[in-house]
Fold this sequence. Notes:
mainly alpha
Amino acid sequence: MALAEAEAIGGNKPPFFVLSHEALVEIAAAAVEQRPVAPFLPRHFSERRQEGLGRAVKAGLARSPLEHPGYLQNRSHRQTEAERRRFAELEQRRNARATELEIDPTLIASRATLLALAANWERAGAELMAWQRQLLGRQ
């Protein structure tokens, strides 16, 4: 599990609240090129998180290329009518909660997440954080 994900789970927050995706890419590029990563860290990044990031970078650099993650391949899935209805219900619920909270709906769940939930809530729902399940209406 990535550092940002572990920190996010511990704080019950989305991973990009810990480190932005852009910062993670910059940190990875700097680490590979043996440049300092400190310029890419947020001002509020605690010493504990900096140490954890240092351990994660070191562990990542120690992995052989054969252990590197591969590219995700998109598998096409034709929705059933029931999945279309579930998707519409989930999207409506997500959008209503986002309006109440005055946030972008995709902060709660992306379109891809809603599609996965509509297809199989048990499998896809297991990957949601508790606050997402609560906002989408399923515990």
